[in-house]
């Protein structure tokens, strides 16, 4: 097995594994968690992408997703949010560097050698999971905040890889908000045309993957402190309307940006994907 198992837990009749492997894509060790339902399978896969500062552990311990995953018969894969380790570029700020990969392949120094999270998620990670777990070869993708940005953009750019996509409080248009402008300048340079290829609202407005996804589910708390300045779901709705793409954006009264919000609605997302993964 390519993966080294560092921890194992039984949960809701399935098996949760914390794994580590040496990544050819990032040139670093990468960590992840994989939940496999009870039984022989095979099972479809939901890839979860986490947000700024997170490791694979945040979703794994806080989202409460595994009861729904066991009931629906879905594997959940949660990778770390960036390469890490000695010699890997970093920044003192929480929103750049290790823990803040933004699911792009960096083209600028010092980030380019290791920060290749788009290629990692859409290539190496999928290949290894399909080779070493009982999957059907069919998968979906979801995520939160920075990971919601990653889920949307990777699904729109690689529609052949994913049957469905959803997100919690995603950064829908990083090229026009502070988090994204800072990260994209560092990772991709000053050419804003390059940024557009990693902006879900702009990809959707251009017709990317039109007709591939019957619906895209997004939950957003209306008490989220980042709603107005960083997230701007209205930009994604406008882009979807312009492109004729169905998007369901549920504004949830009183909910914030935390994992308490995700835990409240994660079962809906697992069911949303299960219907499409098994259909």
Question: What report would you give on this structure?
Answer:
Helix 2 packs parallel to helix 10 (259-277). A hairpin with a 6-residue loop joins strand 2 (14-22) and strand 3. The chain is of the alpha/beta class. Helix content is 35%, strand content 21%. The strands form 2 sheets. Strands 1-2-3-5-4-6 form a 6-stranded mixed beta sheet, with helices on both faces. The protein has a 3-stranded parallel beta sheet with strand order 7-8-9. It is built from 10 helices and 9 strands. The mean pLDDT is 97.
Number of strands: 9
Low-confidence stretches: none
Strand content: 15-25%
Q: What integer is the average pLDDT?
A: 97
Going across the biggest sheet, name each strand in turn.
Answer: 1-2-3-5-4-6
Order of helices and strands: EEEEHHEHEHEHHHEHHEH
- Share of helix, binned: 25-40%
Major β-sheet profile: 6 strands, mixed
What's this model, at a glance?
The chain is of the alpha/beta class and 279 residues long.
